[in-house]
Amino acid sequence: MNTPKTIRWGIIGLGKIANKFAKDIQTIDHCELYAVASRHQEKANSFAKQYNATKAYANYESLAADPHVDAVYIATPHSFHKANAIMCLNHKKAVLCEKPFAMNLQEVEAMIAVAKANNVLLMEALWTYFLPHYQFVLKELKSGKYGAITKLEADFGFKPKIDMESRVFKKSLGGGSLLDIGIYPIFTALSTLGKPVDLEAKATFFDNGVDATCDMIFNYNNGVKAFLKSTFLEETSSEAVFHCERGRIKINSGFHRPSTVTITNDGKQSTHDFEVKTIGYSYETAHFNALLRSHKTESPIMNHKFSRDLMFILDDVRHLINLKY
Ligand SMILES: NC(=O)c1ccc[n+]([C@@H]2O[C@H](COP(=O)([O-])OP(=O)(O)OC[C@H]3O[C@@H](n4cnc5c(N)ncnc54)[C@H](OP(=O)(O)O)[C@@H]3O)[C@@H](O)[C@H]2O)c1
């Protein structure tokens, strides 16, 4: 059998998530961190040294133009995703772009159009979709064993250090709980129940206008509802609970990251553990590598339609809570 082609990665924006991604990449076969790009040369140099990257660039475009880079991971704040992704796509680089894919649907459409025009792979880095426990839950829900979902409850809440200059709080960078963490409960509803027929949403805000909390109810046919929540004001259980006609599937605390799953069915309860040897970003990356090797331009899992639908819902919620960027 032929040895798979080594995928040479570049990372743009060397913040918190870039470090986690760089750690996980080291665990994947036939894949290397080749280049990193920061707005500051010293930062790029020290990141490259820490993770054994060959090249350290002091601007993003130089990385995008490097002919040895196969794929770029975009790890900048949300408000730069569109521009950074389009720049890389126009250099014919495959792009894995952090969530949320962009700031609104118009931006997402622009990114997809450029990917299509250049015939290059573009995928939103919604890592949860690729995690073993989440794939297990999707399979269980599809199996028919538990009947249809009658209600979904999913929340994500934590108390970040208040720093109005950080991207989490800064309005110009797309700050606020909805786009940062509310996207995960919404992703859970979309990936299991689909797009809602209609939705309700209420939010509270910090003084600078970014949302501190967002409570949502998604309405589906036959009275099925999803109760979803994001908050920066309290540590919540951060679970996803699927109430089904014949049982209940609960993704335990930290449902968006590697977690355990408890199933209650026929009066019996079982908890399922999943062996995950990495932080969890390796799963989406290995999937992306395989797509790239087989010259695909879209993921069959995290496809463009899914990213569009996800952003359509986020836009809808923002409209209801009157959150404008
Ligand atoms: N999938 C996940 O689990 C996960 C987790 C956390 C975050 N994220 C997503 O990843 C993205 C980055 O999040 P993060 O927590 O890593 O953010 P972060 O720590 O603030 O890092 C973002 C990086 O973007 C670059 N950047 C470019 N222009 C900037 C500007 N004007 N202000 C601030 N930074 C700027 C900086 O890198 P240089 O200085 O090197 O240029 C900065 O270090 C966000 O879209 C977020 O939603 C995903």
Distance between the termini: 51 Å
Number of E strands: 14
What is the general shape?
A: globular
Uncertain spans: none
**From the coordinates shown, what is the CATH architecture of the largest domain?**
2-Layer Sandwich
Bound molecules: NADP nicotinamide-adenine-dinucleotide phosphate
- Read across the widest sheet, the strand sequence of neighbours is 8-9-10-7-11-12-13-14
Order of helices and strands: EHEHEHEHEHEHEHEEEEEEEHH
State the share of residues found in helices, binned by percent. 25-40%
- Radius of gyration equals 20 Å
Biggest pleated sheet: 8 strands, mixed
CATH H-level superfamily title of the largest domain: Dihydrodipicolinate Reductase, domain 2
Q: Number of helical runs? A: 9
- Helix/strand-derived class? alpha/beta
Task: Output the CATH topology of the largest domain.
Answer: Dihydrodipicolinate Reductase, domain 2
Please state roughly what percent of the residues sit in beta strands, choosing from under 5%, 5-15%, 15-25%, 25-35%, 35-45% or over 45%.
Answer: 25-35%
The level-1 CATH class of the largest domain: Alpha Beta
| Overall average pLDDT | 97
Number of self-contained structural domains:
2
Using brief descriptors, characterize the structure shown.
alpha/beta; Rossmann fold; Dihydrodipicolinate Reductase, domain 2; 2 domains; 14 strands; binds NADP nicotinamide-adenine-dinucleotide phosphate
